[in-house]
Design a protein that fits this description.
With 540 residues, the protein is an alpha+beta fold. The chain is built from 28 helices and 15 strands. The strands form 5 sheets. It has a 6-stranded mixed β-sheet with strand order 6-7-8-5-4-9. A 3-stranded antiparallel β-sheet has the order 2-1-3. It has a two-stranded parallel ribbon with strand order 10-11.
């Protein structure tokens, strides 16, 4: 049998066991074979170096390889898919590079697969193929530089600068000019060269996100480089910063993301209002400054989310109490958090944004009373206004901003209901959700995380039980008694009031309808006649 190892990394055309042509592509090898053996039939084979281990690549690659074999230029899989394969994970976002004509290739692939393709960047010759059924994206681009080596060295981090010939299937064929495999094994995020982060400052946030997602450490020199490059984020488009910030909050450690952003000098640049909370002291039961407390709230919130999603292996007494009381509503909460608002942001991310901003109003409202106690009067409402300005500046959709604003504005409500000493009335439930809307579910869950963070645990048993009871009742009304107490269908409409009460159209009609709905929620009105009589009294 012919030894093909001298041709490792290339295509060969075989006539029997004889090599009739070689090339960097199947097309080139076939062309060489037709010249040397024009009358013979040949087969094409990509030669991999010996001793390689198979890489976990998506099954789609088996469909793509025959298509790529028809191309006259070499094609390489690069970036995150290669990195993830080396970590034993299958990625469904595949990035391919080649010397030229990437957009044309993307459309040929899309035609063969029967799916759509799009031009992402005409000037840079970048195209995308989308497979909607399995949420797979194939991006095709040209070398950023004269060749593959230049393309890889120009990337952000060493672990993302590894390429695999599209025809290859084992790690023996990897092309790794920056020694990224060693950093993968050492679990280190390392930038490639001095300008890696300065050339694109968003990479500072991406590097932190990679470290959190993979459980890696930032190389010391990379941490220094991130701090040095952080001021350059002011020159980056708002949308790119927003996208990376949301991805950081969507990791399993949003608390650690904010902590490291502060330590690396990123937070004051992109979220100055949040950074301003550092060092703002608080009175007991708080034991941390406002920024550290905010980070602790995010930590507890993730624990509560995991508890309600059944993802926590062991539970503290506080989390066990939450599970015992609220697990019945977990499916409803999970559906609520999966809901996506305009702009593509899901409910869980909106809740985490609400947690991040819930005390953003405290630095501006901090006062000392006569007894030396620190107060933050109206910090919830001022914080809501600050939140709206900041999130609009980050180019979030109006729907997303409105939802997070309601979380921040309402975050004190469950605590105040728990401290009132009165049973939770139907009217109080109605007013709560009238003020908060669907965000009231998030406010309720956030209040638990806020309480646990302030006290480093449940604190006084009676106080904790009262808050837990209020949250349980709010969720119960929303999920099981919605049309009874949260948003009762009106017994009358505006036209009824205009006709029966001889009223002109105007703001008074809206006021009366709101009063009627509240009275219905309170259990005071049950019929159309009662509603009309109530409206006559309320108007007189």
């Amino acid at each position: 049998m012919t030894d093909l190892q001298p041709y490792a990394g290339r295509w060969v055309a075989l006539v029997g066991e004889e090599v009739a042509g070689i090339g960097h592509t199947a097309v080139a090898a076939a062309h060489a074979a037709r010249r040397s053996r024009p009358r013979d039939r040949f087969t094409l084979q990509f030669v991999e170096p010996p001793g390689g281990r198979p890489l976990p690549l998506p099954e789609l690659m088996a469909q793509l390889r025959p298509l790529f074999a028809q191309e006259s230029e070499p094609i390489y899989l690069v970036g995150g898919a290669v990195r993830d394969a080396l970590l034993g994970q299958v990625s469904y976002d595949l990035d391919f590079v080649q010397p030229a004509h990437a957009v044309k290739l993307s459309f040929r692939v899309a035609d063969a697969l029967g799916v759509p393709a799009y031009v992402l960047d005409k000037e840079r010759d970048t195209g995308r193929v989308i497979l909607p059924d399995n949420h797979t994206y194939l991006d095709f681009s040209c070398f950023r530089g004269p060749d593959l080596a230049a393309d890889l060295v120009g990337r952000d981090f060493t672990i993302n600068a590894i390429a695999l010939p599209a025809a290859a299937q084992t790690d023996a064929s990897l092309i790794d000019p920056t020694n990224g495999r060693a950093d993968l094994q050492a679990k280190v995020i390392r930038h490639i060269h001095g300008r890696s982060l300065l050339d694109d400052p968003v990479r500072t946030l991406r590097g932190l996100r990679l470290a959190l997602r993979l459980g890696f450490m930032l190389a010391p020199e990379t941490a220094v480089a991130i701090t040095a490059a952080a001021p350059q984020l002011t020159a980056v488009s708002t949308e790119r910063i927003r996208d990376e910030l949301l991805k950081l909050l969507q990791t399993n450690q949003p608390d650690e993301a904010i902590r490291q952003m502060a330590a690396l000098g990123l937070l004051p640049v992109i979220l100055p209002e949040i950074a301003a909370a550092a060092g703002v002291t608080q009175s007991p039961p708080h034991h941390e400054d406002v920024l550290t407390h905010t980070i602790s709230v995010l930590h507890w919130l993730v624990q509560i989310e995991g508890t309600l999603m059944g993802a926590a292996d062991t539970l503290s007494s506080a989390l066990r109490a939450i599970y015992n009381r609220l697990a019945v509503y977990a499916p409803g909460l999970q559906a609520h958090w999966r809901r996506v608002v305009h702009g593509g942001i899901d409910g869980r991310t909106l809740l985490r944004l609400g947690a991040l901003y819930h005390d953003v109003g405290k630095p501006e409202t901090r006062t000392l009373d006569e007894g030396g106690r620190i107060r933050f009067f109206d910090h919830d409402q001022q914080g809501a206004a600050i939140t709206a300005r900041q999130l609009h500046r980050l180019a979030l959709s109006n729907d997303a901003v409105s939802h997070v604003r309601r979380i921040v504005a309402g975050h004190m409500r469950p605590l105040l209901l728990a401290q009132s000493g009165r049973p939770l009335s139907r009217r109080a439930v109605y007013r709560y959700f009238r003020a908060t809307g669907p965000a009231g579910l998030d406010v309720a869950i956030l209040s638990l995380a806020d309480h646990l963070a302030a006290r480093n645990g449940p604190g006084e048993a009676a106080e904790w039980e009262q808050l837990l009871s209020v949250v349980f009742q709010l969720l119960d009304h929303y999920f099981t008694r919605y049309e009874e107490t949260v948003a009762p269908p009106l017994l009358v409409n505006g036209r009824d009031l205009i006709t029966e009460l001889q009223l002109p159209s105007g703001p008074e009609i809206g006021r009366l309808l709101r009063l009627i709905q509240e009275a219905q929620a309170a259990g005071e009105l049950h019929t159309r006649e009662q509603a009309l009589a109530f409206a006559r009294l309320a108007h007189s």
